[in-house]
Design brief:
The chain is mainly beta. The protein has one helix and ten strands, in the order βαβββββββββ. The radius of gyration is 16 Å and the shape is globular.
Length: 153
């Protein structure tokens, strides 16, 4: 199946079911709220009540969500289908893979060193986020999805 892009409004129960371990196809997670970020490991349960937005991702797909009152706006990008996502949005263009650094321990705006529990191995350097970008014919970025994360070499 080729890459597709869906959006859905999910209840807390629907979203929590999609985030319940095991998540082998989406081993990485980034959780955000006004006062912090977290990077839980694959086997950890994600309590969506503690976070205003987040995503889980891997090579097969990325699932992003954002709290909107009692419900969650969610986006699914990738080559899988998940319950609750019915109608795909148009996704044109040729995908291109890219990567970029996340903030490391020397980043001044980060109050404390983040704990990247979803990454194994060395804790030196900065984590690199890998992404797949989808661009229109004129080169404008339509959407991207995260595909992986690792420590810099």
């Amino acid at each position: 199946m080729s890459e597709r892009w869906w959006t859905a409004t999910l209840t807390a129960d629907q979203l929590q079911a999609l985030l319940t371990p095991p998540r082998e196809a989406a081993p990485f997670a980034i959780l955000e709220r006004l006062t912090g970020m977290d990077f839980p490991a694959l086997g950890e349960t994600i309590d969506i009540g503690q976070w205003s937005k987040g995503c889980v991702f891997g090579d097969a797909y990325e699932l992003r969500w954002e709290r909107r009152g009692e419900q969650f706006q969610a986006w699914l990008l990738g080559s899988v289908t998940l319950p609750g996502f019915e109608t795909p949005l148009p996704l044109d263009g040729q995908p291109e893979d890219a990567a970029g650094f996340m903030g490391g321990p020397d980043t001044p705006r980060i109050a404390r060193r983040p704990q990247y529990r979803s990454l194994e191995g060395s804790t030196q350097g900065r984590p690199i986020l890998h992404r797949r970008e989808f661009r229109r014919a004129d080169g404008a970025l339509m959407v991207y999805r995260l595909t992986g994360m690792k420590w810099e070499a």
